[in-house]
UniProtKB/TrEMBL annotation:
Gene3D superfamilies according to UniProt: Isopropylmalate Dehydrogenase (3.40.718.10)
UniProt GO cellular component terms: cytoplasm
EC primary class: transferase
Family (UniProt): Belongs to the PlsX family.
Gene Ontology MF, one: phosphate:acyl-[acyl carrier protein] acyltransferase activity
Keyword Translocase: no
Protein location: Cytoplasm
Reaction equations catalysed: a fatty acyl-[ACP] + phosphate = an acyl phosphate + holo-[ACP]
Protein name in UniProt: Phosphate acyltransferase
Main location as per UniProt: cytoplasm
Source organism: Aquifex aeolicus
Keyword Transferase among record annotations: yes
C-alpha cells in the first residue's frame, strides 16, 4: 500500500478533526499508505505536533477551512469550493489521491462522489452497499440511500454491483442474489419489483427470486437488492433496533446481582458478538460505481473507524474492483435487460 494515497476529510463527523486526524495517523503507521489530511491547517498541525507525527512524510496537510454542515443541503458542497470535502474530492479526481474517506454529510459525500470524483462509464447510477452481519457471514444490502427513486434497469445494475462486491471483496464465489419484496412468490411486490423480477431472471447472476425482510439477517441470500429509499429505512431501523436491544439488556442486567454475574460469564461471547456488529471494525460503506473508492463512514466515527475506512478503500484498489465491475456489467446483463 506504500504507493497508495487517500484524501481524508478532516472536517466531517461528530469528533472531527481530532479523531479523524488520529485515524489518519493510525492508517499511515499500520497500512503504510499516504494520507492527505484535508481541513484547517492550524488545527491539523496542532494535533500532529501533540501526537509527535508532524513532519511524517506519509501525512500531508491540505488546507481547506470550510465545512459542509449536516443541516446544509447536499448540493451546497459543489458551491463551497474551499470545503474539506470538495477539496478532498478534487485530489481524487486529479489523481493526487486514490480514494476519498469522509464521516461528514452523507448527501454531500454522494454529491462529491458522483460529480467530482465521477462514476464509471458503464454505471448509470452508483449505489451504496452495506455488508450486514448474519449467522453465516455477511449479506450485501444495496442500495441503502444513494438513489431514492429507481427504475428497474437501475435495480438490475445494483444487483450486478452487489454481486461484484460480494464476490471480490467478501470472497463469496457464487453470490445468491435476491430482490426485496413482500412475498417470495414471483408477482408479489410493487410495480418496481414486478418489472425488475423478469429482468433479473435474464441476467447471468445467481438470482434466486424474491427475498423478504426476514431474509436480510438470516443468511439465505448473499446480496439483496432494493431501491435506496427502502434500503435507507431498513439500515437506520436496524441501527436503532440494535441500540435499543443493547440498552434493554443492560437495564435488565443491572436489576440483580445474579444477572450481573451471568453477564460476567457471558462477557467473552458478548464481546465476540459486539465485534461482529461493530461499525468501527468495518470502517464505512462504499459508494459503488465511483471511479475511485469513496467511503462514507459513520458520523460518530472514531480513529479506529477512520483507519478501517482507509483500509476498505485500499482493498477496493488492490482487488481491482472497478475493472471487474465493468466486466460484469458488460457480461452479466443482456441487452434486453438494459432498457
Amino acid at each position: 500500500m506504500e504507493n497508495l494515497g487517500f484524501a481524508l476529510d478532516c472536517n466531517g463527523g461528530d469528533f472531527a478533526p481530532l479523531e479523524t486526524v488520529r485515524g489518519g495517523i493510525q492508517a499511515a503507521r499500520e497500512l503504510k499508505c499516504r494520507v492527505y489530511l484535508v481541513g484547517d491547517r492550524e488545527e491539523i498541525k496542532s494535533i500532529l505536533e501533540k501526537s509527535g507525527e508532524f513532519g511524517n512524510p506519509r501525512l500531508e496537510i491540505v488546507h481547506a477551512p470550510d465545512n459542509v454542515g449536516m443541516e446544509e443541503p447536499p448540493s451546497s458542497v459543489l458551491r463551497k469550493k474551499n470545503s474539506s470535502l470538495y477539496v478532498a474530492g478534487k485530489l481524487v479526481r486529479d489523481g493526487v489521491a486514490q480514494g476519498l474517506i469522509s464521516a461528514g454529510n452523507t448527501g454531500a459525500v454522494l454529491a462529491v462522489g458522483k460529480f467530482i470524483v465521477g462514476t464509471e462509464e458503464e454505471v448509470e447510477r452508483p449505489a451504496i452497499g452495506v455488508a450486514l452481519p448474519n449467522p453465516k457471514g455477511r449479506t450485501v444490502l444495496i442500495d441503502v440511500g444513494a438513489n431514492v427513486d429507481s427504475k428497474p434497469k437501475h435495480l438490475v445494475q445494483f444487483a450486478v454491483i452487489g454481486h461484484t462486491y460480494a464476490q471480490e471483496i467478501l470472497g463469496i464465489e457464487k453470490p445468491r442474489v435476491g430482490l426485496l419484496s413482500i412475498g417470495e412468490e414471483e408477482g408479489k411486490g410493487n410495480e418496481l419489483v414486478k418489472e425488475t423480477y423478469p429482468l433479473l431472471k435474464q441476467t447471468g447472476l445467481n438470482f434466486l427470486g424474491n427475498a423478504e425482510g426476514r431474509d436480510i439477517y438470516a443468511g439465505t441470500f448473499d446480496v439483496i437488492v432494493c431501491d435506496g429509499f427502502i434500503g435507507n429505512v431498513i439500515l437506520k431501523a436496524s441501527e436503532s433496533l440494535g441500540l435499543a436491544i443493547l440498552q434493554m439488556i443492560k437495564e435488565e442486567i443491572d436489576k440483580s446481582f445474579l444477572a450481573r454475574f451471568g453477564a460476567f460469564l457471558l462477557l467473552p461471547a458478548l464481546n465476540r458478538f459486539r465485534k461482529k456488529a461493530d461499525f468501527t471494525e468495518y470502517g464505512g460503506t462504499p459508494l459503488l460505481g465511483a471511479k475511485k473508492p469513496v467511503i462514507i463512514t459513520h458520523g460518530k466515527a472514531n480513529a479506529k473507524a477512520i483507519k478501517n475506512a482507509i483500509r476498505v478503500a485500499a482493498e477496493f484498489l488492490t482487488q481491482d474492483f472497478n475493472r471487474k465491475l465493468v466486466e460484469n456489467l458488460r457480461s452479466l446483463i443482456p441487452h434486453e435487460a438494459r432498457v
